[in-house]
Amino acid sequence: MSDDFRIPRSPDNDYSDEWAGKRREFLKAKTGADLTHTGQYSIGTDTLPGNIENFIGVVQMPVGVAGPVQINGEHANGLFYVPLATTEGTLVASYSRGMRVINECGGVKTTVVEQFMQRAPAFIFSDAREAREFGQWVDDNMEGIAAAAESTTSVGKLMHIHQWSVARVRYLRFNYTTGDAAGQNMVGKATLAACEWIKATYPGKCLYLLSGNMDTDKKHSHLNVLHSRGKRVIAEIVLKKEVLERVMKVDTKTLAKASVLANTGAMMAGAAYNGPHSANGIASLFIATGQDEANVVESHAGLLSHELLDNGDFYMAVTLPSLICATYGGGTGLPTQRECLELLGCVGKGKANKLAEIVAATVLAGDISLACAVIAGHWVSSHDKYGRNRS
């Protein structure tokens, strides 16, 4: 490629305002695009190394606040104002409406059940029997494998390894705890060290690929529903019949019948989530708080459960088995993202489970609101009112 088409870069300080400006001018000359707004930002470029390459500016996205919502969790406890970054009119208002119902019913109970992050190497042998024998060797040598993996991190801990044989390949799925970091890079480095130790220590010959794709990194999989990737977090509430009728104009019996229909439709479609729209709240919260946005594809999967109680009240629960979120590392240290985390009281170490509970509570609020809007006939009219259906 001709140097005339190479993006300008500095070998000394590529993250400076000066070089961001040079790249914008270069792009304007090549494409005609005027990047005036992209080039207006308040963040210091010294915060960017490790988060971006070929920096040219920022994409400014509206942030609204929903709530407050009463959360009765083990980590998140109290009233929370939830920042949601979105361009979809009606979304923030809808989540606030669901949060009002939650508050009038006494709050949402949240529980982080377990949490793991995976890397899944594949080891290749001469035949299936050798692969099976290797699996037993791995079980017998867990102490050494864990020591090698954990030598690369002060935070990550190797908890267990799942194993599967296919043909002459043995797939291993390393499961770690990663503190307040999401941990994908952490466990990649740790698993590489473990695999090298295995290769050097195993008495036979083995080859490996660091990821055999069973970690399903940034992809949805049913395996993650069964064996948690990220945090398995549950948000549950008993919706009072009187509150739902007064606020949402919906009867709990009607909601129960509609939920059965929705479950069947989701099952026929093969959907990753059977509730109304978990990805909306998760994506908006992720963008606002500096999460890896690609993790929405894993994190939105889950199960919405319901039960009509004898007294007419309605039990509802969201289970997110692969919620990947962090309060330390990645984009969480960038200035505006940090401010949104401060709004939630979730800055720094020791707060990742708190953020997970807030995310799950937000998803539940959104599902309550949208499910009732569809039943009561407010779905389309609310989008008309707030400007979504302008055509």
TrEMBL record:
Any single Pfam family the record assigns to this protein: HMG-CoA_red
Residue stretches spanning the membrane: none
EC number from the UniProt entry: 1.1.1.34
Entry keyword annotation includes NADP: yes
Family stated for the protein in its record: Belongs to the HMG-CoA reductase family.
Enzyme class: oxidoreductase
Keywords: NADP, Oxidoreductase
Entry protein name: hydroxymethylglutaryl-CoA reductase (NADPH)
Top-rank lineage group of the source organism: Bacteria
CDD domains associated with the record: HMG-CoA_reductase_classI (cd00643)
